[in-house]
Amino acid sequence: xxxxxxxxxxxxxxxxxxxxxxxxxxxxxxxxxxxxxxxxxxxxxxxxxxxxxxxxxxxxxxxxxxxxxxxxxxxxxxxxxxxxxxxxxxxxxxxxxxxxxxxxxxxxxxxxxxxxxxxxxxxxxxxxxxxxxxxxxxxxxxxx
Length: 144
Hints:
Structural class: alpha/beta
Number of domains: 1
CATH architecture: 3-Layer(aba) Sandwich
Helix content: 40-55%
Shape: globular
Number of helices: 5
Number of strands: 5
């Protein structure tokens, strides 16, 4: 399902307003609709409400991996286990951690990409296009 624009609806979940705003500006310039959330709990509430009234479920979620409350990894688990949000929604994870630590965490989440927030702007629009293209759908293997 493509949200509000032909390119799709992207949820951005990050506890830092500056990053949320920069990502939103970058993606909107590329033709995406973007909704911003401070934490995973806000995003889950929006998805549950939108699913109930059958509108604007996100096509992609970009989320910080480590936040207070519902962080990006917990958000991923909740989205993939909830009947309200059980549609397959791809993720891009953001971090400020070491590459090795973040890659291990993302690998545990079915190999979704991880971008370091300090260098994310350059590849973000390109990666979003790739993640939402018909030719790039990560596998839905059962978690071990």
